[in-house]
Amino acid sequence: MSINIEKVHSKNKTMTESFVQGASESLFSIYNLPYGVFQRKDEKNPRIGTAIGNYVLDLAVLEKAGLLISNSNQSLFDRDSLNFFASQGQETWSIIRNRIQSLLSIDNHELQDNAELLAKALVPQADINMLLPFKIEGFSDFYASEHHATNVGKLFRGKENALLPNWKFLPVGYNGRASTVFLSGTQIPRPKGQIKLKDQDAPIFDFSNKLDFELEIGMFIGVGNPDGRRIDVNKATSHIFGLVLLNDWSARDIQAFEYQPLGPFLSKSFATSISSWVVPLEALKDSMTPLPKQFPECVEYLQQASPMQPNIKLRVEIQPKDSNIRTTICETNCTELYWSMEQMLAHHTVNHCIMKPGDLLGSGTISGPNKENWGSLLEITFNGTEPIKLVDGQERTFLQDGDTVIITGYCEMNHSKIGFGSLEGTVSRERHD
Amino acid sequence: MSINIEKVHSKNKTMTESFVQGASESLFSIYNLPYGVFQRKDEKNPRIGTAIGNYVLDLAVLEKAGLLISNSNQSLFDRDSLNFFASQGQETWSIIRNRIQSLLSIDNHELQDNAELLAKALVPQADINMLLPFKIEGFSDFYASEHHATNVGKLFRGKENALLPNWKFLPVGYNGRASTVFLSGTQIPRPKGQIKLKDQDAPIFDFSNKLDFELEIGMFIGVGNPDGRRIDVNKATSHIFGLVLLNDWSARDIQAFEYQPLGPFLSKSFATSISSWVVPLEALKDSMTPLPKQFPECVEYLQQASPMQPNIKLRVEIQPKDSNIRTTICETNCTELYWSMEQMLAHHTVNHCIMKPGDLLGSGTISGPNKENWGSLLEITFNGTEPIKLVDGQERTFLQDGDTVIITGYCEMNHSKIGFGSLEGTVSRERHD
């Protein structure tokens, strides 16, 4: 395998560039360095890497070569999940991140000039497959966007009772199903379930006719609270390893019949998709945007010194089967969330609930103020009553078989854009029954 | 360690007795043989055993001695959880169970006459600690007792709307929190949370004042559906490894404020307790009792040839702090469940949701027709409005600090009683905050 390395010269002396060709202009520059688990197409062993430009840097190879030192006696990166590395804590995350940044920098020659090692460590993304980044034992999903909760509330309870009395006092959430969190690219089977049609007394059992996406951000826990001690809202950041894009696929007709009184179950548990690369929270710190003042004031354990959200621009597109044309369905931003990530985590553990490394918390659908900012078809089509037009002329209320939903996100900062990659899933009806 | 083995002579030629002293008269006879994970007090290694009388039979020792043969090349019993053994399937479960029954029988001399091996393999229960039997990655809880759902519905929605429209069409359930499933004996911290008092607009943050138990049966999945293929209701039995007692601790005041619209979350996720010994479904087969005809008829995937429940007599007692007196609070039976275990499992997977070995499914609170058969204080005290009297004269609406809740269960069959042991938990306020 030959690797074409072109030394890119710095245009701006205040920023560090990488020697990896194209990295500095890409969404995977030296300022991003997301972690993921990959497998070379010609090998079996999964290992941990970071994305740089169009390449993956194999961290297991660098670690074995002695270029990545940590306090741990065990390998951090020759593993099939990020759970162990993430459990090592913020200091280790920082040391490793700084070290990788340094090794990839144009000013550092340790890796750059070691052609043999470089050939082993730097793999074109085309030569690998990505795997699920964490072994996920816990998945919870919140409901933290005010526009989303209001839109859904209006549809089901009318304008007067749109937001329920608890919504502004606590981040409403529920337990999801961890066993069906899938990686981007996994085909999504249209689920069957019990559906109550308007004019009938008894439900029918059929394929969902109201299959929807939900645009969310997912956060992965690095350091848990194994003793059940609650996580302080002002220290919660140090527990959060990084973020991914998340699609909480939802079957609205199944949900409508099943969800009272214990919440959504089979309407969600068939599939949740996440993007492959976990962007470290540290990479996003310059994009942190203060949240508007929360009113009414929340109770003490939710009072955060300065609640913020990363400024992540998010987009949802739909690409129908046999079409090359993508239609943008929604554009919104992570800053639309009412509750901060730290508030969600503090709330989740205030009752002594135990978090483990690799646990995933979803933000809930992120909707902005206007129709073009709404993060689900339920909202955009007013529960299927107002179809939208795709660019190629087709209409949609909910998702059709063969539709691919593409979620992308990036964070724009002073000197670079930090990308989340693309989260894709195609709806299918062909899967076994 | 000396073991006193008394050969018990068979009183009844049609039943097999064990050579282990006291076993035949106990709830842990040769017909029970539940599995659990234990640790000798003087050793570190956890391993798998079965209960026989007042002893634990160390199956790792027997396996090593070549007395337990299976198709697997790997050890089934020298492990810290039942997940691997349970994943081997019904044929292996039967072979092993029959073999253990044979080895413990008075008519078999392989183990009985091998004093050295017996001394190693048969450990008094007083010399061991029990551990969580499974590594549990998924926990779901159902709501399958009609009396319970009706009682709760009446309290919150009035008599007319007690059962919601979906209840008789599908086993209503929700995702629970697997990380806080604890073993019997674990102290239960009274959770803090947001509670809305009657005369106030905003919630307060305080200790729950309405801490409750929920009497349930838990079923452990042995064989999952890793490919997401749905589990047929008429083949579901072969996926169920065994049953335990389960207490779904609930903070009713936290639940009341948080649960709309996504269901219970922090009001449940602080703790769920299970009993130590997993009783194999096979041990209960002679107690299987047909369920009353379900009406209205359910949709096809829930139509089971002959839905049954094991006849398990269940009891809840409360023992206050510094008291030796237990008060029986509830007596009921597993046969009070409207939906069968197989129907719950078929429903859970009908949307392609993935089950794994060690996943736990709770039945939901099991309540019978009368007040003395109701499985939670919420029902028994009409949400705290009608206190009950304990034997020692104290009153209770909900649980007090120091109260121990004891759940016991057994199955009475022709020739023996099959015990589930005791599931205990003491409420505490002292735990760290």
Describe this structure in words.
- 2 copies of one chain form a homodimer.
- Chain A is of the alpha+beta class.
- Chain A has 8 helices and 26 strands.
- Chain A has helices spanning 59-64, 83-87, 90-104, 115-121, 146-157, 252-258, 341-349, 377-380; strands at 35-40, 47-52, 55-58, 122-124, 128-131, 139-142, 173-175, 181-183, 188-189, 192-195, 204-207, 211-212, 215-221, 240-247, 250-251, 272-274, 279-280, 288-290, 308-310, 312-319, 327-333, 360-362, 388-389, 395-396, 404-412, 417-428.
- In chain A, strands 6, 7, 8, 13, 14, 16, 17 and 22 form an 8-stranded mixed beta sheet that branches.
- In chain A, a hairpin with a 4-residue loop joins strand 25 and strand 26.
Secondary-structure map:
2 copies of one chain form a homodimer.
Chain A: E1 35-40, E2 47-52, E3 55-58, H1 59-64, H2 83-87, H3 90-104, H4 115-121, E4 122-124, E5 128-131, E6 139-142, H5 146-157, E7 173-175, E8 181-183, E9 188-189, E10 192-195, E11 204-207, E12 211-212, E13 215-221, E14 240-247, E15 250-251, H6 252-258, E16 272-274, E17 279-280, E18 288-290, E19 308-310, E20 312-319, E21 327-333, H7 341-349, E22 360-362, H8 377-380, E23 388-389, E24 395-396, E25 404-412, E26 417-428
Parallel strand pairs in A: 6-22, 8-16, 9-26
Antiparallel strand pairs in A: 1-2, 1-5, 2-3, 3-4, 6-7, 10-11, 12-15, 13-14, 13-22, 14-16, 14-17, 18-19, 20-21, 20-25, 23-24, 25-26
